[in-house]
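$ ./design --mode recover --in tokens.txt
reading tokens...
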């Protein structure tokens, strides 16, 4: 579905991404870049035709998103969670170094070529129109997610993580399509609840990997209890949204 609508969406996302590149590795720029890449991938997945060209672009974008995700997880840990643990008397934790500098891959020639190709796609005139198809796809995707959300309470962690990512895709798709829905506010509340739960789950996995550091045992116990509290919050948010 390489329509004029999709081209406009890709162009909008590229403007968001390009505006942040010069500010790297600033934490806020990393965060905004992650959002820009996620919005771009949402547009390609929801409104693209699934052809090899779009699939290749999405694969390349996914690699950058994973790198930025690791940087964002570290920021949450250092700026939010570790200060809470310190205030509770947790012994210091020695954290492993990040595998790469945030944004390193975004300065590569490979990523520059990807941006060039996407800019070319966004600026290629098209006579196709697809606003009705866009709305139909959004409605279909939303119905599917509401069915999936019904099993959130008993789902395993990978399934919960997939649902969280797909909900973001739906929200970004609605925003990019310019579809004004009152339920967007409720979706943001749900995303925030699922995001807090996921942050704590990822932190718990890290704390477990740092054992037998004394502080890691302390942090693991705290994160286990907090994750259960945040899971209850997430379950309520899921039911409210459904």
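writing sequence...
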């Amino acid at each position: 579905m390489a329509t004029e609508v999709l081209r406009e969406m890709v162009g909008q996302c590229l403007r968001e991404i390009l505006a942040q590149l010069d500010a790297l590795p600033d934490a806020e720029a990393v965060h905004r870049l992650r959002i820009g890449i996620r919005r771009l991938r949402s547009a390609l997945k929801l409104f693209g035709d699934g052809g090899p060209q779009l699939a290749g672009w999405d694969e390349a974008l996914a690699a950058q998103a994973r790198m930025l995700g690791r940087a964002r997880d570290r920021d949450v840990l250092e700026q939010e969670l570790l200060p809470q643990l310190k205030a509770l008397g947790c012994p210091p934790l020695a954290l492993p170094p990040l595998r790469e500098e945030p944004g390193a891959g975004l300065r590569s020639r490979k990523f520059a070529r990807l941006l060039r190709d996407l800019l070319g796609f966004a600026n290629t005139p098209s006579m196709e129109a697809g606003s009705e198809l866009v709305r139909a796809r959004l409605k279909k995707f939303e119905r599917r997610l509401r069915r999936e959300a019904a099993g959130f309470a008993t789902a395993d962690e990978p399934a919960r993580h997939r649902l969280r990512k797909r909900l973001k895709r739906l929200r970004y798709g609605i925003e990019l399509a310019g579809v004004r829905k009152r339920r967007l506010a409720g979706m943001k509340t749900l995303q925030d609840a699922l995001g807090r739960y996921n942050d704590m789950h990822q932190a718990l996995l890290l704390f477990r990997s740092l054992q037998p550091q004394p502080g890691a045992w302390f942090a693991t116990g705290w994160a286990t209890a907090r994750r259960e509290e945040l899971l209850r919050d997430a379950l309520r948010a899921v039911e409210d949204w459904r």
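exit 0
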